[in-house]
Amino acid sequence: MSVLTSPKARVWGGFALAAVLLFGVAPAVLSDFRLGLLGKFLCFAIVAAGIGLAWGRGGMLTLGQGVFFGIGAYAMAMHLKVADAQLKGQDVPDFMQIAGATELPGYWRPFASPAVAIVAILVLPALVAFLLGIGVFKRRVKGAYFAILSQALAAAFAILLVGQQTIGGSNGLNRFRTFFGFTLADPANKRMLFFIAAAVLLLSVALIRQLMNSRYGELLVAVRDQEERVRFLGYDPATIKLVAYVVAAFLAGIAGALFVPIVGIISPADVGIVPSLAFLIGVAIGGRATLLGPVLGAIGVAWAQSAFSESFPSGWIYAQGLLFVVVVGFFPAGIAGLVTLVRRRRSPSAAAEPGVAASAAADVPEPVKVP
């Protein structure tokens, strides 16, 4: 095997190609508006990368990622609103002034500090996922029950936000003017946000790849396929699941924080059941158990929604549902799994192994055999 065709070289080559496309080609060929849209899609892709680990490798159908996305987003939004008010010499943000408030609520005050806001973005989603996961996985809640519980959590979170007028209620938080001292109206700063999102996405994919290819990744797949045997061998499946769940929440929180300055608004409509399902649809279509499938699926579905809605505003939801049904019904491994299946069937060596094609068609990757 030559150095250029080794697995390590292909990995580095893939990251190099992605970096060229994101940092060189995209800014050169896309307008500022389209580049902003792509930045928004990259935020969704970061969430999808975490879902790929938790659902694709761990078998946890996470229907509530909008919660962790929303925690990170609201933490960032609260800091930006306080910072904007301070620049104007005001004590409270503009929407609070309209409501007649004269001082910040107590839980808003820490977010005046950029350091506190960044720590909250990084820690709070992971902490909430950790506490929830401890209660769920230690009680061996899994399958449909876990999916329903996570979806109910997303619904409850959105309802809670609607009732909190001190964080914008149903209107959410918007009209941000600065981002850590940089003016958001400046096109150069908007491009900077895109580059930050692109860098975070590449780092997220690298993190997920490292986890998937490690001993932990093998244990995660083993827990998905043979949980009782893993427990019999002395491992705690709850802890293994918990790590994947927390990592997925951590990435979702960062994605939400980047979403706020890129898009310019965060509201309960962005964190409830519908957005959580949209994250999942992109992952399923792309190929949930592969490394790049969730990322490309999330970007592709978001792009299709934007393009389709421009021509047929009311028809996208039907097209999205049809696409999801077709993929789940006929290509359960997603588009990435279909590509893998075609490639393996064309290979004589793979055709001689009937188990390989069956595994690719059913659900990638092959189960880990626990002795």
Automatic annotation (TrEMBL):
Region (Disordered): 349-371
Major localisation: membrane
InterPro entries, sorted: ABC_transp_permease, ABC_transptr_urea_perm_UrtC, LivM-like
Cytoplasm keyword on record: no
Localization of this protein: Cell membrane
Membrane topology: Multi-pass membrane protein
Pfam family, one: BPD_transp_2
Protein name per its UniProtKB record: Urea ABC transporter permease subunit UrtC
Source organism per UniProt: Rhodococcus olei
